[in-house]
């Protein structure tokens, strides 16, 4: 699968404490216009585009979002995913207009199952109720929804509750527990992070405490050795798409960069049976915590 990820703007209506983007980007003239998107599509269509992801920043803040979606669908691209904090999607008319334009897939951030838990991440009062309302409205349209929850000290003890909250309300088809990317704004709050081994343990315990939640639950940026016994939950096992990213500055071969630059593995990882499929950790993580947590798996059934 070939995916083109377009960062329409770096402006955002949340003030997330653990955002991996540099805050200075919000002050730049970062919006792409319709002509910019047209040029991106023209450059990539020859190699094929299976899916376009519109993200940011917060793409719903872009004044021409609906027109851009129509432009993309007009190129016979079947899947347009909106990656969003969903706050503005609580406006049912706006949501309907976006879906009529051609948005047919959503990736939404949900970092807790209470106001306090979610807003400890977003730093934006009222954002939890807005995303919940948006999820309720989207649910009526029966389109694919993937939720992303970043694990911090604020929610690590409540992962089972988050799963149950999503299941009970039928908010999504899948739920990803992601480990924080310690770049940008996130570097300011290192004291609120957990270690990867702690995050992995919490996810496994939450999943084991439930028989069948009806959700596809995965992890992101958590190496296979930490998910021992639950390896099929590691999202990198399924992330085989070729992803090309664009913003107002550059085009990037993101899949290649993620594997070769953005992530890192210890020298001992070559001894692990998962070495060929594991991408390791975000490269900033071992600079802070080292590699002591990561013990190679030598064979199935044995550490």
Structure description:
By secondary structure, the chain is of the alpha/beta class. 30% of the residues lie in helices and 17% in strands. It has helices at residues 34-45, 65-73, 92-101, 115-122, 127-139, 159-169, 196-208, 254-262, 284-289, and strands at 2-7, 51-55, 79-84, 105-109, 145-150, 174-178, 216-220, 242-246, 251-253, 263-264, 281-282. Helix 2 (65-73) links the parallel strand 2 and strand 3.
Explain briefly what this protein structure is.
This protein has 303 residues and is of the alpha/beta class. Helix content is 30%, strand content 17%. The chain has 9 helices and 11 strands.
Helix count, DSSP H or I runs of 4 or more residues? 9
Profile the largest sheet.
9 strands, mixed
Task: Kindly estimate the percentage of residues that lie in beta strands according to DSSP.
Answer: 15-25%
The CA-CA distance between the termini, in Å, is 34 Å
Round the Cα radius of gyration to an integer and report it: 19 Å
Structural class: alpha/beta
Runs in which pLDDT lies below 50 for 5 or more consecutive residues are none
Helix content: 25-40%
User: Could you report the average pLDDT, rounded to the nearest whole number?
Assistant: 94
| Order of helix and strand elements from N to C terminus | EHEHEHEHHEHEHEEEHEEH
Global morphology: globular
Tally of strands: 11
Main sheet: strand order: 7-6-5-4-3-2-1-8-9
């Amino acid at each position: 699968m070939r995916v083109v990820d377009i960062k329409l703007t770096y402006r955002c209506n949340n003030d997330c404490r653990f955002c991996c983007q540099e805050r200075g980007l919000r002050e730049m003239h970062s919006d792409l216009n319709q002509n910019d998107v047209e040029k991106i599509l023209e450059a990539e269509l020859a190699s094929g585009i299976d899916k376009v992801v519109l993200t940011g920043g917060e793409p719903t803040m872009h004044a021409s979002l609906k027109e851009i979606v129509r432009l993309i669908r007009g190129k016979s691209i079947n899947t347009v995913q909106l990656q969003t904090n969903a706050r503005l999607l609580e406006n049912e008319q706006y949501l309907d207009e976006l879906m009529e334009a051609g948005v047919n897939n959503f990736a939404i951030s949900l970092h807790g199952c209470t106001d306090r838990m979610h807003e400890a991440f977003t730093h934006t009062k009222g954002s939890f109720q807005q995303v919940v309302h948006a999820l309720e409205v989207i649910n009526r349209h029966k389109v694919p929804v993937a939720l992303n929850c970043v694990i911090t000290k604020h929610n690590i003890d409540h992962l089972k509750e988050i799963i149950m909250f999503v299941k009970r309300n039928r908010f999504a088809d899948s739920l990803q527990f992601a480990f924080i990317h310690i770049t940008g704004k996130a570097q300011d709050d290192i004291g609120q992070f957990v270690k990867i081994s702690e995050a992995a343990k919490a996810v496994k315990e939450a999943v084991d405490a439930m028989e069948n939640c009806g959700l596809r639950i995965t992890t992101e940026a958590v190496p296979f050795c930490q998910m021992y016994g639950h390896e099929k939950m590691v999202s990198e096992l399924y992330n085989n798409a070729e992803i090309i990213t664009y913003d107002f500055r550059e085009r990037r071969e993101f899949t290649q960069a993620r594997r070769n630059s953005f992530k890192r593995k210890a020298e001992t990882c070559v001894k692990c049976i998962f070495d060929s499929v594991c991408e390791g950790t975000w490269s900033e993580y071992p600079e802070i915590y080292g590699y002591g947590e990561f013990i190679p798996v030598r064979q199935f059934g044995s550490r």
